[in-house]
Amino acid sequence: MPKFKDQVVHYDIVGSFLRPEILHRARQDFEKGTLSLAEFTKIQDQEIQKLVAKEVAAGLKFVTDGEFRRSWWHLDTFWSFAGIKKTEINQGYLFHNVETRRESAQVCGKISFTKDHCDLKAFQYLYQITKDLDVIPRQSIPSPAQCYAELVRGQANLKALHQYYANDEELLDDLGKAYHDLILALYDAGCRDLKLDDCTWGMLVDRSVWEKMGYDVDDIQKIQDKYLAFNNRALADLPEDLHLSTHICRGNYASDWASAGGYEAVAKTIFGKEKVDAFYLEFDDARSGDFQPLQEVPSGKEVVLGLVTSKSPELENPVNLANRIKEASQYLPLENLSLSTQCGFASTDEGNHLTEAQQWRKIQLVVDTAKKVWSD
Fold first, then answer.
1. Fewer CB atoms inside 10 Å of the end CB: C or N, the chain?
2. What backbone torsions phi and psi does residue 261 show, to the nearest 5 degrees?
3. Phi, psi (5° rounding) for residue 187?
4. CATH fit for domain 3-373, picks 3.40.50.2300, 3.40.50.170, 2.30.30.700, 3.20.20.210
5. Segment 19-31 mean pLDDT
6. Is 311 helix (H, G, I), strand (E, B) or coil?
């Protein structure tokens, strides 16, 4: 696991936190034009400072800004690259019980990184307020594969893409470089812990989803290979002291989910070949499958078990959590495992259906359970 001052920490978070009401109001006022960008940023700064203080008080060693500056966990990042614009589409993402806002990202020129990228500016502030604290600031960004999936989402996006890129190989070069440049800029700003959030693999685990789209097993393997190529192009030739991880998600929007299925369909590709040090995996209910796919994780790599759900306020039984960790250790050594929530608490501005107090009780459960399991 990532070490904190030569000590292994076995409890963790995925990254996003419920937005305080003041942030919701500020974003609404900013979008209406009644609050200036400077005033909006000041409120974000203040709330991030408060959040970091709460993370430290909870005993967390790896802290985030809660993604308080984002509206979406992924689209804000895409919009901030040169050559990609915000767009409205006919249909939002379809979750099990709800449809999301109808926003997307569309190619409008050759893609590249710029130094005013929102994620770089966000991390620079997080680093500034944590550099003298006894914590490590973590930056999460959506994966390149996720960006590719968005740019080919629907006929309008495809048409726009083909105006600038004749084939996927050309796109792979530019998008890979844009991401690689972003990651190096984050590193130069002090980032030593970077996580790629990625729903692409989480969608591929659901056979019913891809069968409805007319795909077969061979098609799915080709898509996996493409996603892997986009991710690994961005992750090549990075500093050795940058800890890289990825979170594989099946959808997290207003406490709803988008896909179901175990990791068997993607395990050999994602676990065996992606150039990361650790995998944050969802195992909070039967929809997530069993632990057997963990046998595909190479020796020495880490898995953070998302056993505590962030989708509902009910607290899991710590004895049951300990038993499930023990079960997972049949496939991966206990020292290579950690515990976290299955996802963040607010992958989008809407957030999941629980209170801030319930959110912190979930985190306390993770910390307390992990300390007991790994000290026994």
1. C
2. 140, 150
3. -60, -45
4. 3.20.20.210
5. 97
6. coil
Whether the full predicted model's pTM is greater than 0.85, yes or no, is yes
Check if the beta carbon of residue 294 is closer than 8 Å to that of residue 329: no
For 73-109, b/e burial (b = at least 16 CB within 10 A) is: bbbbbbbbbbbbeebebeeebebeeeebbeebbbbbe
pLDDT average, residue stretch 214-231: 90
Break the chain into its structural domains and give their ranges. 3-373
Asked if 137 and 191 count as a contact pair (C-beta separation under 8 A), the reply is yes
CA 54 centroid distance within chain? 21
Alpha-carbon gap, residue 27 to 33, rounded angstroms = 10
pLDDT, tens only, 178-202: 999 999 999 999 999 999 999 999 9
Report d(CA 318, CA 298) in Å as an integer: 28
